[in-house]
Amino acid sequence: QKEVEQDPGPLSVPEGAIVSLNCTYSNSAFQYFMWYRQYSRKGPELLMYTYSSGNKEDGRFTAQVDKSSKYISLFIRDSQPSDSATYLCAMRLNYGGSQGNLIFGKGTKLSVKP
Amino acid sequence: NAGVTQTPKFQVLKTGQSMTLQCAQDMNHEYMSWYRQDPGMGLRLIHYSVGAGITDQGEVPNGYNVSRSTTEDFPLRLLSAAPSQTSVYFCASSYHRPGPNTGELFFGEGSRLTVL
């Protein structure tokens, strides 16, 4: 079992829909959780960052972490065609040495149709 | 502000050839890393470094070498290219200490390598 599991999709939704993206993980020691967005032929860019459990909201984006279930989610409200990209979840144990390395999910490809 | 710069952006090699992918960052980040991204496999860590003179292996290090002689540069060397190394390679950097920053990993644009 890979440490981080993410449904690769693809996921296609109409403009204005609410999108839910999810990852599960097996290592309960992960403390830092992130979502990256990657446009085609570009490098990933950080979208959301959460430390430990809880919710974080930034505009149309909400990140949730449920450590008891080892499950993280990204919600996109009022989705736009410009949100069409691959979304990668990532997590890290801590800072320092190998604990600082990010472990990525495989990414979910999202397409928002006008 | 250049951020993380990778060269070349595209490269075609023949099996057995060697080459170096260059990576430079201008953000004074301690941590630098190389990932490869393959369809259906996600981003996999090849090698990483937490400072000049310090390197270590990631998940898929075989066939690759790295060195870190300066804070800014972290080249990735393919010793004897194989078709299995056909991939998109990303260099990334970040601060590597707790603090007000998030430890955000900044990525380059990627280097697309084809080995024939």
Structural class determined from secondary elements of chain A: mainly beta
Distance between the termini of chain B: 36 Å
List the secondary-structure elements of chain A in sequence, H or E: EEEEEEEEEEE
Shape of chain B: globular
Q: Regions of chain A with pLDDT < 50 over 5+ consecutive residues?
A: none
- Termini Cα gap of chain A: 37 Å
Strand content of chain A: over 45%
- Radius of gyration computed on alpha carbons of chain A: 14 Å
Rg of chain B from C-alpha positions?
14 Å
Run of helices and strands of chain B: EEEEEEEEEEE
Q: Which two chains form the greatest contact, residue counts included? A: A-B, 25 and 27 residues
Oligomer: heterodimer
Instruction: Give the class of chain B from helix and strand content and strand pairing.
Output: mainly beta
Poorly predicted runs of chain B are none
Considering DSSP H and I runs of 4 or more, what fraction of the residues of chain B is helical? under 10%
Biggest sheet record of chain A:
6 strands, mixed
Number of DSSP helical runs of chain B:
0
Helix content of chain A: under 10%
Q: Report the sheet with the most strands of chain B, covering strand number, pairing sense and barrel closure.
A: 7 strands, mixed
Topology overview:
The complex is a heterodimer of chains A (114) and B (116).
Chain A: E1 4-6, E2 11-14, E3 19-25, E4 32-38, E5 45-51, E6 54-58, E7 61-66, E8 71-76, E9 85-92, E10 103-104, E11 108-113
Parallel strand pairs in A: 2-11
Antiparallel strand pairs in A: 1-3, 3-8, 4-5, 4-9, 6-7, 7-8, 9-10, 9-11
Chain B: E1 4-7, E2 10-13, E3 19-25, E4 31-38, E5 42-51, E6 54-57, E7 64-66, E8 76-78, E9 87-94, E10 106-107, E11 111-115
Parallel strand pairs in B: 2-11
Antiparallel strand pairs in B: 1-3, 3-8, 4-5, 4-9, 5-6, 7-8, 9-10, 9-11
